[in-house]
Structures are given as C-alpha cells and as structure tokens.
Amino acid sequence: HISFPKLNIIAKRGKIANYKSVHGNHVVVKEVINESNGNTYVILEKKDNTPFFGYLNEVKANYDKSLSSGEISIVNQ
After folding, report:
1. Average pLDDT of the chain, as a whole number
2. 65, 40 in Cβ contact below 8 A?
3. pTM to 2 decimals?
4. What's the rounded Cα separation, in Å, for the pair 56 and 38?
5. Could you read off the pLDDT of 6-43 as tens digits, one per residue?
6. Cα 3 from chain centroid?
7. Residues facing 61 on adjacent strands
8. What backbone torsions phi and psi does residue 26 show, to the nearest 5 degrees?
9. pLDDT at res. 75
C-alpha cells in the first residue's frame, strides 16, 4: 500500500530491481492528506534524507492499509 515504482522502472534507472533496499528503513511522516472518501494518505521520507532507490525523495502510502498489513509500523523514540 506504499506507492513504490514498479521494478522495471527501477531497473531502467540503472538500479537493482528489488524492494529489499527499502526493507527496515526508518521513515518520517512529512505530510498527512485526508481525502473526502475517508482515506488517509501520508507522504514518507527517509530519516537519513537519502532518496529511495537512489532517486525518490518521498513516497505516498495509504496510512490505514499499510499500517494494518505491516508495511509500516509506529516507533516511539
């Protein structure tokens, strides 16, 4: 439920085409978007400010669905 690019797009940019490079990364919520249909989306960026896959500074995720599926989790620091 996180809007990552398809693997063929990552490969076309000269990167290794897998999602393992983003597994375990710590992210921060940059923006929260509440839509009229009841969905809540968040804009995520990496905590260390490096781009995802070497070129994406931020990604969009459906908050409720990605949290319930385990794609993201809340960590208190």
Report:
1. 93
2. no
3. 0.86
4. 27
5. 999 999 999 888 999 899 999 999 999 999 999 999 99
6. 6
7. 2, 42
8. -90, 130
9. 87
Written in H, E and C, the secondary structure of 21-56 is: HHCCCCEEEEEEEECCCCCEEEEEEECCCCCECCCE
Average pLDDT over residues 39-48: 96
Q: What is the mean pLDDT of residues 66-71?
A: 94
Buried b (16+ CB within 10 A) or exposed e, 26-63: ebeeeeeeeeeeeeebbbbbbeeeeebbeebeebebbb
Alpha carbon distance 56, 6 (integer Å): 13
SS3 12: helix
In sign, the C-alpha dihedral spanning 13, 18, 24, 27 is positive
- Measured on CA atoms in the order 71, 29, 76, 67, is the torsion positive or negative? negative
